[in-house]
Design a protein that fits this description.
- There is one protein chain.
- With 483 residues, the chain is mainly alpha-helical.
- The chain has a domain at 78-330.
- The protein has helices at 9-30, 39-57, 62-75, 77-96, 98-107, 115-130, 133-151, 155-172, 177-186, 190-216, 226-238, 247-257, 262-280, 282-288, 294-307, 317-322, 332-350, 353-362, 368-385, 389-406, 411-423, 433-442, 446-449, 454-468, 476-482; strands at 310-311, 324-325.
């Protein structure tokens, strides 16, 4: 290492340019929405290889490069374990009827006089329950779009309400992959991240709901709720829907409030969901895993829901899409992406390339507020150029993590900034995987619903405002003193 020549800015940008180029080809030219099934992971590995070659050319030992890769992967191990447990939890909560009950009662909020407000609220509830903005938009979102059209409300503003709610829930749900990815990149834990996000996210969604409430007052037609009733009927035909099911999330939330670590809390929540499935959904278990031995069928149902795909089939196609879970297996693709991203980040970090790029950017950020604004802008730029929300979180997260620490800013400030800007703005870019997906599902162009996706627009602005005015900006020393 004594003979290692530090990379120039030009050399440091080469792997980034290779990565962006491959991602653009994958998303826009070849694979489209399927780019996350492996093409983007390979792009990360190729870009990491290019970075490794540059490091070796500059005199770094191969063993040192691998040490950086191993260190980077190790830093994400807790997040990977949590993702597996979230897959298990999502599966048992689906089988037990916890998630379907949330959807069922959430649909009752719908009121024709406040349709846009209710649409945003319902999508928030469903997305919080499922941890997925995509499945929320593709299921309840489509139904709400049809109802809104029947009311004579414009499709773009309905789509804006759907996407605003879906991304609020996705952003705040512990079940969401991006909500797990952001703290992993910043160096904090999941529940600290979620709690800290409330400072910027709650004001953002409240402003959004007020805007939709005001706009909604101009529409006075009566809603045609048959589609909502069909959804509820389909759910009730398969599940024993009862308020008692909410005991499961209440217990898990209580464990979190009592500061039980995420891994045991999520694992217990998964097991509790399995127990409630046996207690309340015996008929469904018998239908899915028929066996003369009740213990065997119950055991198989719970294990399958935690590990592999479980699909509940009804007469409603929209409900069928919503009532499915991939268990731990369904999280493997995201874990694969995280591992490849950490390999890329590890090479860029150990080689000094990330530090060289960051130094050039940070030179423009003289204050903490401008650092947060620069991070926000970087996330948005990566959403536009890399066409992927995961990369918009991973790369800026690795780039700015050390600088935040050097300025005594707690890692949760970085993780919040990454989510406030990286996650939500992905839906506003037509060629981003998220923007392309929502356009395809809803049939509304990104450019049309862009101006009505108030939550997605307000969130990055809110985090910059908090940064410049020093509102709820946590310091590392302050955290240590409180302990």
């Amino acid at each position: 290492m004594s003979n290692y020549k530090q990379p120039t800015l030009f050399q440091s940008l080469i792997p980034i340019c290779v990565l962006i180029g491959l991602l653009v080809v994958n998303v826009l030219q070849v694979f489209g929405n399927d780019a996350l099934d492996g093409a983007n992971q390979l792009a990360l590995l190729i870009a990491a290889t290019v970075g490794g070659i540059i490091a070796l050319t500059n005199g770094m030992d191969f063993e040192k490069v691998m040490e950086g890769v191993n260190s980077s992967i190790n830093s994400a191990m807790s997040a990977i374990i949590i993702l597996l447990l979230i897959g298990a939890l999502a599966g048992t909560w689906m089988l037990s009827g916890v998630v379907p009950a949330m959807i069922y009662y959430g649909l009752d909020i719908l009121n024709p006089k406040i349709f846009l407000f209710a649409t945003c609220t319902i999508c928030s509830i469903v997305s919080m329950a499922t941890g997925s903005s995509w499945s929320t938009v593709a299921t309840v979102g489509i139904a709400l779009l049809g109802i809104g059209k029947a009311l004579g409300i414009g499709e773009p503003i309905i789509a804006g309400a759907i996407i605003s709610g879906a991304y609020f829930g996705d952003k705040m749900s512990p079940l969401s992959d991006t909500t797990n990815l952001a703290p992993a990149m910043a160096g904090t834990d999941l529940f600290t991240h979620v709690k800290y996000m409330t400072y910027t996210t709650i004001p953002s969604i409240l402003i959004t709901l007020i805007i939709f409430l005001i706009i909604g007052l101009f529409y006075t037609a009566e809603a045609q709720g048959s589609q909502v009733e069909e959804l509820q009927t389909a759910i009730a035909s398969k599940f024993n829907v009862t308020p008692w099911l909410f005991v499961v999330p209440v217990v898990v939330i209580s464990l979190i409030l009592f500061k039980v670590p995420a891994i045991p809390a999520l694992f217990f929540g998964s097991l509790l969901g399995g127990a409630f499935a046996i207690l309340f959904q015996g008929q469904l278990i018998n239908e899915l895993f028929a066996d003369s031995n009740v213990f065997k069928s119950s055991y198989k149902a719970v294990v399958n829901s935690m590990t592999t795909e479980v699909s509940i089939v009804t007469q409603n196609e929209l409900v069928n899409e919503l009532l499915s879970s991939g268990g731990m297996k369904g999280m493997l693709n995201t874990i694969w992406l995280i591992l490849c991203a950490m390999i890329f980040g590890g090479v860029m970090e150990v080689s000094g390339m990330l530090k060289r790029i960051t130094k050039s950017i940070i030179g423009l950020a003289k204050t903490d507020g401008s650092l947060i604004a620069t991070t926000t802008a970087s996330c948005i730029v990566f959403n536009v150029t890399a066409s992927d929300q995961y990369l918009a979180i991973v790369v800026p997260g690795k780039m700015f993590a050390e600088e935040f620490k050097e300025r005594n800013l707690h890692p949760k400030v970085l993780s919040r900034t990454l989510e406030d800007s990286g996650t939500v703005t992905s839906a506003l870019v037509p060629w981003n995987t998220c923007g392309a997906y929502h356009t395809g599902v809803l049939g509304v162009a990104t450019g049309d619903y862009f101006m009505y996706s108030f939550f997605n627009i307000i969130s990055p602005i809110m985090t910059v405002i908090f940064g410049y005015f020093n509102i709820k900006i946590a310091r590392i020393n302050e955290s240590k003193q409180k302990k």
